[in-house]
Amino acid sequence: MSTTDQARVTVPESHAKAPRMSRYTRTNKSNQGLHTKKSILLTIIMGALVLYSLLPLFWLFVNSTKTQAELLNSFGLWFSGPNALWDNIVATVTYNDGVFVRWFGNTLMYVVVGAGGATFLAALGGYGLAKFNFPGKKAVFAVVLGAVAIPGTALAVPTFLMFSQMGLTNTPWAVILPSLISPFGLYLIWTYALDAVPTEVLEAARMDGAGEFRTFFTISLKLLAPGLVTVLLFTLVATWNNYFLPLIMLSEPTWYPLTVGLKQWSNQAQTVGGDVIYNLVITGSMLTIIPIVVAFLFLQRYWQSGLAAGSVKA
After folding, report:
1. Is 314 a domain residue?
2. What is the phi-psi region of residue 35: left when phi exceeds 0, alpha when psi lies from -120 to 50, beta otherwise?
3. Structural domain of residue 282, as residue ranges?
4. What CATH number does the domain containing 291 carry?
5. Count of CB atoms within 10 A of residue 81's CB?
6. What is the pTM of this model?
7. Of 56, 104, 121, 125, which is least surrounded by CB within 10 A?
8. Which of 267, 235, 237, 240 is nearest to 253 (CA)?
9. Span between the terminal Cα atoms of the chain, in Å
10. Is 24 inside any structural domain?
11. Alpha carbon distance 243, 256 (integer Å)
12. DSSP secondary structure string, 263-296?
């Protein structure tokens, strides 16, 4: 073959391949450009949501640094005057013979006993419903779903009437006992235990001679840890922020939680001769959210997978 013939063969092949490469490159660049636009849009949306979430906390912190006079005469989203944060904190915890500390302790008691007990009962009930068969299981499932759909405020008045007949109103039990019932937590553990606790693991433990209680406390609880932490956080926040139930159950201020107590402080400004202490209300609100933030930061490390490793033996 002559040199002229070779040129006739090779030149058309190179020209034929060039358009294919250019179309691929243009498509790839187009996809990258679309990806970049989507990433920028999602970043803007997430930034707006973060700003929306953090703005109230920023407002709370900024206004906790102001005196009563500066609080009412300055821009709410920026600092003004001398920093009075420490003075406000001291005044909050010492006001009215330190009743804020008493309310804080009451709230901790309601959370530890109520939310902790609700999580434990949800673990027992959800695990039993997920791993054991018994007559009436479908009826129990329907009751649990119905209880999830009923808002807690709808049950507050009937609960008050029942507790009033039992003589439990104006006592800590009037807040703790209703907090022990968490239909949503029970349903969540129920659905989570179906897959999180393999039946083969339970059978292996039983073959090794472990009883049901030992199997539950030494194996199943470890496998249910992420679900339990989720339920604990839900019940913790619900109990910590509980307002309506303590409001109707408690008439003695010494048993108030923080939510009702701070509202009482805020209402003082609307009464004749009442002490206007909005700066203490805001500072107390800031102190109130700190334990919730700490709880979330501490418990988030338990949201992990792979907890089933090494749990086959009882």
Report:
1. no
2. alpha
3. 85-302
4. 1.10.3720.10
5. 13
6. 0.81
7. 56
8. 267
9. 82
10. yes
11. 10
12. HHHHHGGGSTT----HHHHHHHHHHHHHHHHHHH
pLDDT in tens, the chain (314 residues): 444 454 444 444 444 444 454 555 666 666 666 667 778 888 899 999 999 989 999 999 999 999 988 888 888 889 988 899 999 999 999 999 999 999 999 999 999 999 999 999 999 999 999 998 888 888 988 898 888 888 878 888 899 999 999 999 999 999 999 999 999 999 999 999 998 888 888 889 888 888 888 999 989 998 898 889 989 999 999 999 999 999 999 999 999 999 999 999 999 878 767 788 899 999 999 999 999 989 888 887 776 543 443 344 43
Quote the DSSP letter at residue 181.
-
- Same domain, yes or no: 116 and 249: yes
| Residue 14, amino acid | S
- The whole-angstrom separation of Cα 249 and Cα 114 is 15
Question: Token pair for residue 286?
Answer: 């800031």
Asked if 231 and 270 sit in the same domain, the reply is: yes
Token readout for 306 is 């792979």
Distance CA 233, CA 227 (A): 10
Angle of helix 137-149 relative to helix 116-131, nearest 10 degrees?
140
- Rounded to the nearest 5 percent, the helix, strand and coil shares of the chain are 80, 0, 20
